[in-house]
Amino acid sequence: MPSQATSLYPTSFGRPSKIAVIGAGAVGTAVAYAAAIRGDARDIALYDINAEKVRAEALDIAHGIQFTPCGSVVGSDDIEVVRASDLVIVTAGAKQSPGQSRLELAESTVKLMEKVVPALQEVAPDAVYMFVTNPVDIVTYVAQKISGLPASQVFGSGTVLDTSRLRYLVSQETGVATQNIHAYVAGEHGDSEVPLWSSAEIGNVPLTQWGTTLSGRVFGRDLRDEIAHEVVNSAYTIIDGKGATNYAIGLAASRIAGAVLRDEARVLTISTLLNDWHGISDVCMAAPTIVGRSGAGRVLVPPVTDDERQGLQQSAEKLREVARSFGY
């Protein structure tokens, strides 16, 4: 006979899909809200140790499900709410302060993951796990080691948001819809990330051959560097202004969730455990990866310049040093 706690919550046995979002802060609630609006899963569960807040946040979203494809939204401080989830999205962690780098968040967040990951595995051992908590590359690597799960089953949101920021800025320069701009950011989700300009295209036109932009410039080094700088620093700008980034990462995580649960085989720059990718191994960082129902699939190897390769290797080494400092 199921426990009282278990029976309170929808499960995904027999098929409606279920997403569990861990953490009911600004990011977690944005992820749950975006997933509900987009209909990424039939059932959405929100888990947080703050019982009053998590129930209120879930209820606020649930009151609007009439207007969404979603079927139920529940919130609880009982980890049983996560049971039988198909996808677990972890957003819980220390809040990034103005001027603080993502890597500076590492120590407290790693300690949290050492407690949270085993507890989640007990109730959702077969789920695909996506980590959004910063520093996401370190968190993903640590979680993969703690869980012992296949690398495909544990990945981070990586630079999906950074890639969206890059495409947005290129769109502003060209007037072309972001959906027709094909450019990626790889490496750390943070200060050492690397825009892959050499493979960037608008339609099938290489970015370097685009010609004059709306501002009367061309995509030379100066313009590319300005855009790259804005991509890296945009989160700091938002944090300085409003205290947290949440809407865009909510949409980005929802986009990844849809790729998993609808088995879309979509190419996204998630953070995954790399094995001889441009000479980089045993580190989690962002690379163009095919994402589907099994999680992180084939990692694509786009052509890169020597400078881009060097930047990616430096990014990997930076992340590796941080992970090693915590014994991973």
Automatic annotation (TrEMBL):
<feature type="active site" description="Proton acceptor">
    <location>
        <position position="189"/>
    </location>
</feature>
<dbReference type="InterPro" id="IPR001557">
    <property type="entry name" value="L-lactate/malate_DH"/>
</dbReference>
<feature type="binding site">
    <location>
        <position position="157"/>
    </location>
    <ligand>
        <name>NAD(+)</name>
    </ligand>
</feature>
<keyword id="KW-0021">Allosteric enzyme</keyword>
<feature type="binding site">
    <location>
        <position position="53"/>
    </location>
    <ligand>
        <name>NAD(+)</name>
    </ligand>
</feature>
<feature type="modified residue" description="Phosphotyrosine">
    <location>
        <position position="236"/>
    </location>
</feature>
<comment type="pathway">
    <text>Fermentation; pyruvate fermentation to lactate; (S)-lactate from pyruvate: step 1/1.</text>
</comment>
<protein>
    <recommendedName>
        <fullName>L-lactate dehydrogenase</fullName>
        <ecNumber>1.1.1.27</ecNumber>
    </recommendedName>
</protein>
<dbReference type="InterPro" id="IPR001236">
    <property type="entry name" value="Lactate/malate_DH_N"/>
</dbReference>
<feature type="domain" description="Lactate/malate dehydrogenase N-terminal">
    <location>
        <begin position="18"/>
        <end position="156"/>
    </location>
</feature>
<keyword id="KW-0597">Phosphoprotein</keyword>
<dbReference type="Pfam" id="PF02866">
    <property type="entry name" value="Ldh_1_C"/>
</dbReference>
<dbReference type="GO" id="GO:0006096">
    <property type="term" value="P:glycolytic process"/>
</dbReference>
<dbReference type="GO" id="GO:0006089">
    <property type="term" value="P:lactate metabolic process"/>
</dbReference>
<comment type="subunit">
    <text>Homotetramer.</text>
</comment>
<dbReference type="GO" id="GO:0005737">
    <property type="term" value="C:cytoplasm"/>
</dbReference>
<feature type="binding site">
    <location>
        <position position="102"/>
    </location>
    <ligand>
        <name>substrate</name>
    </ligand>
</feature>
<feature type="domain" description="Lactate/malate dehydrogenase C-terminal">
    <location>
        <begin position="159"/>
        <end position="321"/>
    </location>
</feature>
<feature type="binding site">
    <location>
        <position position="27"/>
    </location>
    <ligand>
        <name>NAD(+)</name>
    </ligand>
</feature>
<feature type="binding site">
    <location>
        <begin position="134"/>
        <end position="137"/>
    </location>
    <ligand>
        <name>substrate</name>
    </ligand>
</feature>
<dbReference type="InterPro" id="IPR011304">
    <property type="entry name" value="L-lactate_DH"/>
</dbReference>
<feature type="binding site">
    <location>
        <position position="245"/>
    </location>
    <ligand>
        <name>substrate</name>
    </ligand>
</feature>
<dbReference type="GO" id="GO:0004459">
    <property type="term" value="F:L-lactate dehydrogenase (NAD+) activity"/>
</dbReference>
<feature type="binding site">
    <location>
        <position position="182"/>
    </location>
    <ligand>
        <name>beta-D-fructose 1,6-bisphosphate</name>
    </ligand>
</feature>
<feature type="binding site">
    <location>
        <position position="167"/>
    </location>
    <ligand>
        <name>beta-D-fructose 1,6-bisphosphate</name>
    </ligand>
</feature>
<dbReference type="Pfam" id="PF00056">
    <property type="entry name" value="Ldh_1_N"/>
</dbReference>
<keyword id="KW-0560">Oxidoreductase</keyword>
<comment type="function">
    <text>Catalyzes the conversion of lactate to pyruvate.</text>
</comment>
<dbReference type="InterPro" id="IPR022383">
    <property type="entry name" value="Lactate/malate_DH_C"/>
</dbReference>
<comment type="similarity">
    <text>Belongs to the LDH/MDH superfamily. LDH family.</text>
</comment>
<feature type="binding site">
    <location>
        <position position="48"/>
    </location>
    <ligand>
        <name>NAD(+)</name>
    </ligand>
</feature>
<keyword id="KW-0520">NAD</keyword>
<feature type="binding site">
    <location>
        <begin position="162"/>
        <end position="165"/>
    </location>
    <ligand>
        <name>substrate</name>
    </ligand>
</feature>
<feature type="binding site">
    <location>
        <begin position="132"/>
        <end position="134"/>
    </location>
    <ligand>
        <name>NAD(+)</name>
    </ligand>
</feature>
<dbReference type="InterPro" id="IPR036291">
    <property type="entry name" value="NAD(P)-bd_dom_sf"/>
</dbReference>
<feature type="binding site">
    <location>
        <begin position="23"/>
        <end position="28"/>
    </location>
    <ligand>
        <name>NAD(+)</name>
    </ligand>
</feature>
<feature type="binding site">
    <location>
        <begin position="93"/>
        <end position="94"/>
    </location>
    <ligand>
        <name>NAD(+)</name>
    </ligand>
</feature>
<dbReference type="InterPro" id="IPR015955">
    <property type="entry name" value="Lactate_DH/Glyco_Ohase_4_C"/>
</dbReference>
<dbReference type="InterPro" id="IPR018177">
    <property type="entry name" value="L-lactate_DH_AS"/>
</dbReference>
<keyword id="KW-0963">Cytoplasm</keyword>
<feature type="binding site">
    <location>
        <position position="96"/>
    </location>
    <ligand>
        <name>substrate</name>
    </ligand>
</feature>
